[in-house]
Design goal:
Blueprint (H helix, E strand, L loop, with lengths): L7 H31 L14 H12 L9 H24 L10 H35 L7 H17 L3 H7 L2 H16 L11 H31 L9 H12 L8 H29 L4
Amino acid sequence: MSPQPISPLKNFFAGGFGGVCLVFAGHPLDTIKVRLQTQPKPRPGESALYRGTLDCFKKTLAKEGVLGLYKGMAAPIIGVTPMFAVCFFGFGLGKKLQQKTPDDVLTYPQLFAAGMLSGVFTTAIMAPGERIKCLLQIQAASGQVKYAGPMDCVKQLYRENGVRGIYKGTALTLMRGTDIISSEHHHLSRRERETLKPARKHRLSVPSVLFAGGMAGIFNWAVAIPPDVLKSRFQTAPEGKYPNGFRDVLRELIREEGIGSLYKGFTAVMLRAFPANAACFLGFELAMKFLNWMAPNL
């Protein structure tokens, strides 16, 4: 059974569906993560707003109900389809550009390079979505409701600082990247295929897809948490607080809370990483299978 030629167009549509699956599966823990990352340092004699992941989860449920865990989800849902569509399109294009024939097996560095291309492609869509999502996620916890929803948030940000206000944190979003997720999933999936019988070596079972996607998320977030913490702090800070950008955020965090502050929300991130990315790649694989059946020559 010959390998299916890489189709950037199919990657585009399947990636969009995979992104929707990721948001639905991972948004509750993403809300917890952002709230832990952005909570202020307690004053002397005061206790922290949240003692940890479980405490934040309990307080959110008690104060806001289940819907509180889905605060700000409209922004990533609106942006996630084109974002992941472009991500997987870029990854598919990056792989195809390095192949001479569809049978060529790419090396891990080549997969990583293809993943980096996908990360560059998605940043233009991801950065404003992340900015809006974070602002909506923290406002309910602070008790000060400034934005009525995603569109109101966009309008206010644009009115206050123009396009620059909407794209605040773009460099950190790019640093956090999406390249490791895509390349690691492909690498793990390929290793999984190599262990299967020849007759089945181009078909992955659902558990195999879930495992490869979940582990890809774990590997990615293991290195992405520090820039993600800086991004969350920078994107939710009042305008003008950090005139030198994320360098000021980094200095403040290390000076006031130590190097460990760069891993705030670690538990929530890791609890979210496996199921969210597993759901993403399962959705991608199922959508790709459907597209290959509907249009095998596309």
